[in-house]
From TrEMBL, chains A, B:
Belongs to the homoserine dehydrogenase family. The lineage of its organism: Bacteria, Pseudomonadati, Pseudomonadota, Alphaproteobacteria, Hyphomicrobiales. L-homoserine binds at residue 200. PANTHER family: HOMOSERINE DEHYDROGENASE. NADPH binds at residue 115. Pathway: Amino-acid biosynthesis; L-threonine biosynthesis; L-threonine from L-aspartate: step 3/5; Amino-acid biosynthesis; L-methionine biosynthesis via de novo pathway; L-homoserine from L-aspartate: step 3/3. This is Homoserine dehydrogenase. Residues 360-449 form the ACT domain.
Length: 449, 449
């Protein structure tokens, strides 16, 4: 009773929520459930006063009658009597961008879960937020319920961060985990992910690595103190991963993960998203299913690993609420990224260097004399040494063609020593032109520790 | 240049550091190294102006000439012209407590790494801090460089936390890891830990579980919103763990970890620190050496795991700096614990319940007829069902005494089904009294998932 009276006497933080999908519905429910506790911590009540979504009539399992309804989220951002707009619309442009801009233009704080928006326009929005004295908070935009933004932005402020590596897309990690655990093809696992709601009808954004790249670009900016540069991320998705790659990785002591990695070197920053063979003993190799994980190397703490849910309504709403309470306590606190946005510089792209773990290469090789020699000599010409060559003819193929002279193709696995991906791809291109190797060879980076 | 001018024009946050051991020296070095970046994020310069330690002449690898020296930390807290005192003295009472009290008494913010102080006096200090409008920040007090306080206090504010389980003492985890990896006794591993500086000359505080208990009590207060109650923690250390326990755990698919666990139930809060068999597939089982880890179950995010360095000068200083920058940005922000300290209630202790994982029991059994029957019937009397009984006579013992009738003692392992630790210990006490069982049987909780 004492609390309630004290809390009510303070000015509430008035919230407008734009977008009432899964996360929006979770947010309204959790804010109502935790109202008293949040009021105590925030020092003032947190009151949702306005909402906006496309369809007013849809049943979201929450009572919307107490909130002012806006058909247009931009109108909400422009007109509603709110101190903070929560943008949960999604998409890099269109109404999401217009909503955030409208809120910032009148100095209203913004909380967003929108990585695409930040990856494309984060710098401009941050400049505007800082100019208006408004907060632009986005814990929910990267790794869902894992507090990685707060960790990098606040907890590691005393550190020079040297590397961030993460499993940042639950859809991809679910598919790769299922492929390994249940011996299924990429296509089957994708279909299952879609059925379970882990993947969109159009899965391009997730499985081709773009979602991971957006999140990585945001993390890299925060960690290294430069402008967000999503175009600098080298992106490769998981569509080309086959069962044989999963099985071979397993035999070699690795697990294939879609990693987003940003590394600071003396010559610049490298940002890449690609399927990677991670040693099974490493923490990231053990993260299975839709779970996300982020591994941070920093000079003072050494290594820090955070593991948790990368998506889901409640988990994402949990991060949104953390941002809201921070704003309720202290408004806009510190620059949006690592330094005032207008002062952030372009990050130099690190030049391509030999990767000390080498590469896993799978080619479909014409099963006849001279074929293997051709690939190996193309590799040698490019200065690439091979650690091993494994030719795996299936028992069926061996039965059909005991002499191996039919001209059928067989998968051959090459493991290289230290080299660059460019060198490997260049050599493979020549081998394909030689006519001994099928098109689209598979190249996967190996991380050894 | 632009930054520098802008920053210098703002009022600096003036810091006094009390205690210049490993963490203090790291703190001074890191604050100097990161001065420009910290000023940008904090929006004002962070200036150490005063220091205090016992020995002014000791070489700490940092230049102290720019700071006002105080022989007495309490004098620093009382008289130095500072906005924030960092207490790195240690100990639950004495100069550490007097220093923090003196700082708070005049409304000066406090950052501390002192878990013993908080476990004993955290509630009183929080009341005083909140009354004076001063911050009392303590990220460094629990799990060193892992941002677990910020995560529980800020990131999970929208959640109801149901359980926190952690490896919170690097010394114990180092010893248990070495015992497993190198087949060494507890005593040998402790000696090595002392040689490497991982354990104190008097290791009681660490190896008997008290350090873990202090950290757990602080986490439980934050997570469950009750008063810190270190006396409520059931504490057992790792001195009694023998090689045979490590090997048997391994064979059963577990690893022995000293866990601190706080669980919220409908009937109250259970807090315990004890050696625990954790399934090897679980994240906490994989944390080896001096590394710490915390696993949090919460209703909105589900499960979150943080892994990182639990000690070390730089890692701990990293957490101190995060607290300092928070204070520089927004002073005291929100209550010290989950709600205003004066309003926090005593947490009910959860009544003892059957533990669904059962227990591992090792007894030294007199190697003669009737001995095993006696133990088993004492267990049965107490309503305890046994999943398995394994008697492991060493090959040497079998050679010396092929009939097994010499009256020598042999280790026998019992695995129970669901039961309480009290029931197990009661039955064992009777079995000891029967004369068939050696004193001090080993009882280890098994966690199955």
């Amino acid at each position: 009773m004492g609390h309630a009276i004290r809390t009510i006497m303070k000015t509430p933080l008035r919230i407008g929520v734009a977008g009432l999908g899964t996360v929006g519905a979770s947010l309204l429910r959790l804010l109502a459930q935790r109202r008293a506790a949040l009021g105590l911590v925030a020092g003032r009540p947190i009151d949702v006063v306005a909402v906006s979504a496309r369809d007013r009539t849809r049943d979201r399992g929450v009572d919307l009658s107490g909130y002012t309804w806006f058909d247009d989220p931009v109108a909400l951002a422009r007109e509603a009597e709110v101190d903070c707009v929560v943008e949960l619309i999604g998409g890099s442009d269109g109404p999401a961008k217009a909503t955030v801009e409208a809120a910032l233009a009148r100095g209203v704080h913004v909380v967003t879960a929108n990585k695409a928006l930040l990856a494309a326009h984060g710098m401009d929005l941050a400049v505007e937020a800082e100019r208006r004295g408004a907060a632009l908070a986005f814990e929910a935009a990267v790794a869902g319920g894992i507090p990685v933004i707060k960790t990098v932005r606040e907890s590691l402020v005393g550190n020079e961060i040297t590397q961030i590596a993460g499993i940042l897309n639950g859809t991809c990690n679910y598919i790769l985990s299922r492929m390994e655990q249940d011996n299924l093809s990429f296509e089957k696992c994708l279909a299952e992910a879609q059925k379970l709601g882990y993947a969109e009808a159009d899965p391009t954004f997730d499985v081709d690595g773009h979602d991971t790249a957006h999140k990585l670009a945001i993390l890299a900016s925060l960690a290294f103190g430069g402008r967000i540069d999503a175009d600098a991320v080298r992106v490769e998705g998981i569509r080309s991963i086959k069962q044989i790659d999963i099985r071979m990785a397993n035999r070699l002591g690795y697990r294939i993960k879609l990693l987003g990695v940003a590394v600071r070197t003396a010559d610049g920053v490298e940002q890449r998203v690609c399927p990677t063979m991670v040693e099974k003993t490493q923490p990231l190799a053990r993260v299975m299913g839709v779970t996300n994980a982020v591994n941070i190397d920093a000079n003072a703490v050494g290594e820090l690993t955070l593991v948790g849910p990368g998506a889901g309504g409640d988990a994402t709403a949990s991060s949104v609420i953390a941002d809201i309470v921070d704003i309720a306590q202290a408004g806009s606190r510190g620059p949006v990224f690592a330094a005032p946005a207008g002062d952030l510089q372009h990050m130099e792209r690190a030049p391509v260097k030999d990767h000390p773990g080498g590469y896993y290469v799978r080619v479909n090789l014409l099963d006849k004399p001279g074929a293997a020699a051709s690939v190996v000599s193309r590799m040698a010409e490019a200065g690439i040494s091979l650690e091993s060559i494994v030719q795996r003819r299936s028992p069926k193929a061996a039965e059909r063609d005991p002499t191996g002279r039919s001209g059928a193709k067989v998968p051959v696995i090459l493991i290289t020593y230290d080299t660059t991906e460019d060198a490997v791809r260049g050599a493979l291109q020549k081998a394909v032109a030689d006519g001994f190797v099928g098109s689209s060879p598979q190249v996967i980076r190996i991380e050894r520790n």
